[in-house]
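Two folds, back to back.
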Amino acid sequence: MNSSISTPQPLIKLDNIYKIYGSGDIQVNALSAINLKIESGEYCAIMGSSGSGKSTMMNILGCLDRPTAGNYYLNGKNVADLSRKELAHIRNEQIGFVFQQFHLLPQLSALENVMLPMIYAGISESERKKKATEALIKVGLEARINNKPNQLSGGQQQRVAIARAIVNNPLILLADEPTGALDSETTKEVMSIFRQLNEEKITIILVTHEKDVAEETKRIIHFADGKIIS
């Protein structure tokens, strides 16, 4: 009888990741020897000053960029060497993105903006509408589904962006300075939504330079000069 217990794989495993821009005298090590594990269901913040490597890190975690060297295992699969098409597929199905600027299409309603990612996933229109409505209800915007972005406050627009990010039930929600354009009261509302989503077991990784925002998460990863320092 085999008594060995297999330990589950972390959701994210970065193995000696480097990202180098340029070459020769103008070579810049944006990331150096990054080793990191993030388990499924974690709620983390990545902090660091401008130029510390946190945005490069976010691009690699989000499969928007490839490392120069090293391996990136996402849900057990090494995504460092995948083709652009395969990476696009992973981004659409497994990763939700929330940015500082909301990136909503001004001519579309909140509902239509949230339906967009599902078009690429080949989901029928009736199902898209149903799932988009559910996502907007989850972020407290059921009364605003037919409003266009210019009829919504900054906080409401960010809620639409969060609904769009979660509509395909991603494994990971990546948020890059999600409260950077919001006032303190609206920041609290948005952070409350992230907390609620994390309680529903969505893994959330948040890049921020705001200490109070980072302290809302359960784990803070500090970057400096392209390295993890704590």
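---
second:
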Amino acid sequence: MNTKKKALKAAIPHTIPVLAGFIFLGIAYGVLMASKGYGALWSFLMSTIAFCGSMQFVAITLLTSTFAPVQTLILTLLVNARHLFYGISMLKKYRGVGRLKPFLIFMMCDETFSVNYSAQVPEGVDKGWFYFFISFLNYSYWALGSVLGGLLGNFITFNTEGLDFSLTALFVVIFLDQWKERKNRVPALLGVGAASISLVIFGPSDFIIPAMILILASLTLLRRKLDPKVEGDEQICI
């Protein structure tokens, strides 16, 4: 078995929970796009070129309202600012992957970050291709779901309220899976605690960025205790 096939075979099981969530949520997105007059082709282009998940749902409103490029830019930066923390956290994981790094950066999303950060590369499997196939499969699932939704949206109409909760459910499944596999659960508890504190202080609409900053600071300060193998001259990377 060659390097790529071996990495693909190892990556597929890690993406199954994401497949279940992305197909359903992608269909919801495609249906919403179709309800605003944007067919399957537009859903496909948005999902493959923009590929920004939650921002794509926001963009449906932006596409059907008065053109406001400055406000759109600011809103997009705020919604996707969490990716700054994802990038910092993946510095060590993506080190040495060579020409695959630009693709890994482009295909990064919440679910892919969660899976790639927690997944252990099997022995004998190329790290770069392993991370690449996890990222590419998740990227493909989202695009496929969007297209299916765009096609179905032309034939059926129903109340879509609550469909976006599937994303929350997907995060819960990924969290529980990591909780079962990891012996050191302190980082998970820190994450839950930081999110809870930020939610109380800043409210449901503004807690994400403060929570990410608090998580980053906490894990950085406690890094040596959480990971005794960390060397003093190593890059800061949670």
